[in-house]
Design brief:
This protein is an alpha+beta fold. The chain is built from 21 helices and 22 strands. Strands 9-10-11-16-15-14-12-13 form an eight-stranded antiparallel β-sheet. It has a four-stranded mixed β-sheet with strand order 2-1-5-4. The longest helix has 24 residues. The radius of gyration is 25 Å and the shape is globular. The two termini are 31 Å apart. The N terminus is likely disordered.
Length: 608
């Protein structure tokens, strides 16, 4: 995830010396060293600050904390919770209750999580002061990177960043994704080269803030192409978003080259602020247009990033967790440029950063910065797997940041300055090592997520309910769904969900294709709002149902048994990630159907 860009698009001021940059970087690295040496003392102080400031809030009073700020009392009296436990309090705030329910400071807005509850985005309360903490973490990224790739301040970064639509709660608070909140903040928009030597991006801020995804993407790629020789680093937030940008370029390069040749922006870009900002950069350049056309016309687009932006040192994208599925295609388009994951963050809290950014994607580990929040960890081997509750005995197994053990896996639990107390984030982490006394974690997965293409996260229960709704259309034809599984297909861009259905029906009954298409659409309509938004913005492709031969899932069972599975414990996996089984399913597919239209989606919760 990149740091803030500068608003002024002029060239860097050469008067800013390397000595100034070196000193700034030294201060940032010293900060990391200090907080990782004094990790436990800082964690104790952070918890004390949070509890002191929120001593009188309703939530803590409810559990009888009565102003206590010590760890022992906090852990004994305040329960570990998930979102559903807080929903009543969060709904009160969303509906306009301004009393100190969760936090003593006013809730400034809600950050909408990519995780969902009841099919709608979770609402994470935040306060103005949290922007300072997020900005602090961003400010550490480039000093770390400079140790591995120096002199990045002498060029530009081409990052494809986008804002998403926002809504207002009934009480008038904004509800929007955390990155949209950050991109619209003064911390992001007003950063200058004088206070940060690195915020020099090819994209004008107006192109990032444009809500029209086509105009935003087109303009950002155009500016990146025009300034191609100055680009030293490229990226997006997620790997999927970066690949979408490449596919957009593949589709629109003729028009983009024409704009560069003539110095005139395409008429399809109608946003006035975008047009004005881009035209400050764009000038006629027939020679550059000819070069870009020559490269884009080639039959193979292998290494297109390195060919069009020849000075690029690395690609800054998240490729951990479900995003790892995009690594092969990224390697293809970039000629194997380093894939860099710089930081670990969520809507609930910003957590830490990668101190070895040029490591291989499967070796990425994040060092938790102990000033961001108070962190606890729930050992996976100490809980019974119940998703929605945790017993008093299990709560006793939570350990502090400095007490995690190498090689063990944990679920992350946070207490934040913005009013979350012992909140289960849902991320599963494995301890990979330590930076001084601060642990470093591999991100393993998001708990219970079975399908994900972009920022969507679909769990098994939600998938089951959606499939049940969709398969109801078969009943009118005396047919029923006997078994199913799924996979996330990223061989197409954008990627899409694939469902494999085995159906029981009378051989004489014919089911029209339109019925299966309606099944696809109903499944999509039944999925959460993050998925439906992804379909609306074309970051996720239409859902596909593949009908397989009868007996196919018996063959899947046979394959699993041949690989050592126990027949007594076997159950059909609801998501397949193992290529041999996907190949088996595909060979048994007898027909394929796609959702004919986008599911319904509007900003905000359905009950607002």
């Amino acid at each position: 995830m990149p740091e803030a860009p500068k608003q002024d698009h002029a060239e860097h001021d050469d008067a800013i010396s390397d000595d100034i940059i070196i000193n700034k970087n030294k201060k940032a690295l010293k900060y990391i060293e200090d907080v990782t040496i004094n990790t436990d003392e800082i964690q104790e102080r952070v918890l004390g600050e949070i509890l002191s400031a929120s001593a009188d809030v309703e939530y803590l009073q409810r559990y009888g904390l009565d102003g206590r700020t010590d760890r022992k009392s906090f852990k004994k009296m305040v329960p570990v919770v998930c979102y559903e436990d807080l929903k009543v309090d969060i709904d009160r705030i969303a509906n306009g209750d301004t009393s100190p329910i969760l936090c003593s400071k006013p809730i400034s807005e809600f950050l909408t999580s990519s995780g969902t509850s009841g099919g709608e985005r979770k609402l994470m309360p935040t306060i103005e002061q949290e922007l300072e903490r997020r900005s602090l973490l961003y400010s550490l990224l480039m000093p770390v990177m400079d140790q591995f790739v120096p002199n990045l301040h002498k060029g530009k970064g081409m990052y494809f960043l986008f804002t998403k639509s926002e809504a207002k709660t009934p009480g008038g608070l904004l509800a929007r994704p955390v990155l949209t909140s950050y991109y619209k903040s003064s911390h992001f928009k007003n950063t200058t080269h004088e206070n940060d030597p690195y915020p020099n991006y090819t994209s004008p801020i107006e192109t990032i803030l444009c809500l029209d995804s086509y105009q935003s993407m087109y303009s950002q790629i155009l500016c990146g192409l025009y300034q191609h020789e100055q680009v030293l680093r490229v990226g997006a937030v997620f790997a999927s978003g970066f690949i979408r940008a490449i596919k957009f370029l593949e589709k629109h390069w003729i028009s983009l080259c024409n704009d560069i040749r003539t110095g005139i922006l395409d008429d399809k870009i109608t946003d006035l602020d975008v047009r004005v900002s881009v035209m400050k950069i764009l000038k006629p350049n027939p020679k550059l247009a000819a070069f870009l056309e020559f490269e884009c016309k080639k039959e193979s687009w292998k290494g297109i990033i390195s060919r069009l932006w020849p000075n690029t040192k690395y690609v800054d994208v998240i490729v951990t967790g479900t995003m790892s599925q995009y690594i092969p295609i990224l390697d293809y388009y970039t000629n194997g440029l380093p894939l860099v994951c710089t930081m670990y963050a969520s809507s609930e809290c910003y957590f830490g950063l990668n101190l070895n950014p040029l490591c291989e994607p499967n070796e990425v580990c994040y060092t938790i910065i102990p000033t961001m929040a108070y962190f606890e960890f729930l050992p996976l081997n100490k809980i019974d797997g119940n998703d929605n509750s945790i017993s008093t005995t299990e709560q006793e197994h939570l350990v502090d940041l400095v007490d995690v053990e190498l090689g063990q896996e944990y679920e992350l639990v946070v207490t934040t300055y913005a009013g979350l107390y012992r909140y289960r984030v849902g991320d599963i982490l494995r301890v990979a090592g330590f930076k001084n006394k601060a642990p470093q974690f591999n991100f393993i997965c998001r708990k219970n997520v079975v399908l994900s293409i972009d920022s969507d996260k679909t769990d098994e229960v939600e998938l089951q309910n959606a499939v049940k709704e969709g398969s109801n259309h078969l009943l009118n034809y005396n047919a029923s769904l006997t078994e199913y599984t799924s996979c996330a297909d990223t061989s197409t861009i954008p990627g899409h969900y694939v469902l494999y259905w085995e159906i029981s029906k009378n051989e004489n009954n014919s089911i029209p294709d339109s019925v299966f298409e309606e099944c696809c659409f109903t499944v999509e309509e039944s999925l959460n709002s993050v998925y439906r938004q992804g379909r609306k913005t074309e970051s996720i492709g239409p859902l596909e149902i593949k009908v397989v031969e009868n007996g196919t899932f018996d063959k899947v069972l046979d394959f699993a048994l041949s690989q050592g599975a126990s027949i007594n414990q076997y159950k059909t996996p609801r998501c397949i990630k193992y290529d041999p089984i996907i190949e088996l399913l595909n060979t048994k597919a007898i027909s394929s159907f796609f959702s004919p239209k986008c599911p319904h989606w509007v900003p905000g919760h359905k009950n607002w």
